[in-house]
Amino acid sequence: MNKMTWNQKSFDELTVEELYAILQLRTEVFVVEQNCVFQDMDGKDPYSHHLMGWEDNKLIAYARILPPGISYVESSIGRIVTSPIARKKGIGRELLKRSIEALYTLHGKTVIRIGAQYYLKGFYESFGFRQTGSIYLEDNIEHIEMLLFIKA
Fold it and tell me: pTM (2 decimals)?
């Protein structure tokens, strides 16, 4: 694997090519791979920052960083995704670590709420997230809300 490059941009800073790559990766995983018909373009992207991980000019990791009041009262990280070609290489861990750091830089060191796919509960718990509610179905996939509290 070649060295990855990471960058983060506001929606207005994204190039057309970057936006296309983001939507392509999200569709590849969330719509095609997970066989889930849903409205990915949900109106939240313009209010978000977009963290992108590139290898050989191909987007292979992505997350959006949302300010408080967009998805939840708290700041949030969403659309966390790695390309199928990038899995089992630690890139998802690097993506989430960088996403948390980016959120703290943008919005201050604050509580983070996510809506996580239930099967990834252990992954998020390894970063300190804790389940805060019951399992719910979103687009026919089991999800849970999780919080990451600030460590004293």
Answer: 0.94
